[in-house]
UniProtKB/TrEMBL annotation:
InterPro entries: Leucine_aapep/pepB (IPR011356), Macro_dom-like (IPR043472), Peptidase_M17_C (IPR000819), Peptidase_M17_N_1 (IPR048816). Pfam families: Peptidase_M17, Peptidase_M17_N_1. This is Leucyl aminopeptidase. It comes from Thioclava atlantica. Belongs to the peptidase M17 family. Residues 318-325 form the Cytosol aminopeptidase domain.
Length: 470
């Protein structure tokens, strides 16, 4: 890994201002509360706000003049309906306010205060490895009653995920992904072990080897372990560092974003940081099958039949459906230990984007308690998720007859569901299993989410863990 890349480096813009810092007030104002807010201001300031045409729209700012420049500001809440349409709308203030420390003034709903505070931290993210990108200079004082350490750990884990996804494949292959995992382990006192290249065959990971063998960058299985007490949580993340499609070569337009095909791995590493940094009482295991799906004389072929670690045979009907192959071997290994909860995260199917768009990743689980906890947490922490079914009648679609399983059923329908069903075949001993079919990319800039790599589902999972694992 290039030494100059600051994975997990301190980012002042993504931390709260020092406690006790001299700060200016930022008062949140609803559209129906404008007049009351203005009545509390000196006449000159109220007149200045009126002159700005302040309507208290979601994220709208009105600066308040003072003897030394700006003495404070009003921040529009907008209507609840508008805020529901624009997550982290209030985080716009982070980039628009003058330099210095600010604090949220007045009584604020705790959930809104937390969303605003976290959004502010996330808005400080910049990917600046290849070009200068100045972060916001306004800093927020952590609102009273909020867990500063936890919020900063979440923001740092999200920044880690974004950095990994945003880094092009020239600088983020399987070796560099391993380096990132080792850096994370060093930070938290975790252990990392790696099985790479031909050793994958010796240790019975044939499908990870098959997908990655065409690349000069050796495929590998990365394992991180942390914690010696509490319930067992296993995170499995798809680490396809670049996906050409293999011999079923993608067209150029479809290949352009394939640096993000390791978004599942990036997300579980970011989530692992959040878990470890907050000191969760559990035994954490992270498994990442890291490969590059390349084209060469060694490429696996359409029509090949691979035998998985689980012993199930798989007919390859499309080499561009490789993510489920590498995940299958990793899931089979994870299942052998029967963890209390297993989470799989992958940028797996375009079908999920067609169904739900880029913002709303589907998740699959047979456990109603896990599903309920995730749905509740998703809403509470503004990290959208939507439960989709392991629809049993579609099982026949992944059974080709010539082998146990088909990696790419024909017909094009229910692609996200059939991929999830395929993965479930490799988890037979672990009752509580959830699979997330994420996108890992923000197509256009939005509050707290610049265009580029983005974590999805990690914050909801973190919030749900106490309820799921006790």
């Amino acid at each position: 890994m290039p030494a100059e890349f600051p994975f997990l480096a301190d980012r002042p813009a993504m931390r709260f201002a020092a406690t006790g810092a001299t700060s200016r007030p930022l008062r949140l104002v609803a559209p129906d509360g404008i007049e009351a807010a203005l009545d509390d201001l000196p006449p000159a300031q109220a007149a200045f706000v009126r002159a700005q045409g302040f309507k208290a729209g979601a994220g709208e700012l009105a600066l308040l003049p003072g003897d030394d420049g700006v003495s404070g500001a009003l921040l529009g809440l907008g209507t609840p309906e508008r805020r529901a349409r624009l997550r982290f709308a209030l985080a716009r203030a982070a980039g628009d306010l003058p330099e210095g420390a600010w604090h949220l003034a007045g009584e604020i709903d705790p959930q809104l205060a937390e969303e605003t505070a976290l959004g502010w931290l996330l808005a400080g993210y910049r990917f600046a490895r290849y070009a200068e990108a100045a972060p916001p200079k306004a800093r927020l004082v952590c609102p009273e009653g909020l867990d500063r350490v936890r919020l900063e750990a979440i923001a740092e884990g999200e920044a880690f995920t974004r950095d990994l996804i945003n880094t092009p494949a020239s600088d983020m292959g399987p070796d560099e992904l391993e380096g990132a995992a080792r850096l994370l382990a060093e930070r938290h006192g975790a252990q990392v072990s790696v099985i790479a290249g031909e050793e994958l065959l010796a240790h019975n990971f044939p499908m990870i080897h098959a997908v990655g063998r065409a690349s000069p960058r050796a495929p590998r299985l990365i394992e991180l372990n942390w914690g010696g007490d509490g319930p067992a949580l296993t995170l499995v993340g798809k680490g396809v560092c670049f996906d050409t499609g293999g011999l079923n070569l993608k067209p150029g337009a479809s290949m352009g974003l394939m640096k993000k095909d390791m978004g599942g791995a990036a997300t579980v590493l970011g989530l692992a940081h959040m878990v470890m940094a907050t000191g969760a009482r559990l035994r954490l295991r992270v498994l990442i099958p890291a490969v590059e799906n390349s084209v060469s004389g060694a490429s696996f072929r359409p029509g090949d039949i691979l035998t998985s670690r689980k012993g199930l045979s798989v007919e390859v009907n499309n080499t561009d459906a490789e993510g489920r192959l590498v995940l299958a071997d990793a899931l089979a290994l994870a299942d052998e230990a029967r963890p209390d909860l297993m989470i799989c995260m992958a940028t797996l199917t375009g079908a999920a984007r067609v169904a739900l768009g880029p913002d709303l990743p589907p998740f699959y689980t047979d456990d109603t308690g896990v599903a309920a906890a995730l749905a509740e947490a998703s809403e509470a922490v503004a990290d959208p998720l939507w439960r989709m079914p392991f629809w049993a009648p579609y099982e026949s679609k992944i059974e080709p007859g010539i082998a146990d399983l088909d990696n790419a059923p024909s017909g094009g329908m229910a692609g996200s569901i059939t991929a999830a069903l395929f993965l479930r075949r490799f988890v037979t001993e672990t009752p509580r299993f959830a699979h997330f079919d994420i996108y890992g990319w923000q197509p256009a800039a939005a509050p707290a989410r610049p265009k580029g790599g983005v974590g999805q589902g990690a914050r909801a999972i973190l919030a749900a863990l106490p309820k799921v694992l006790g």
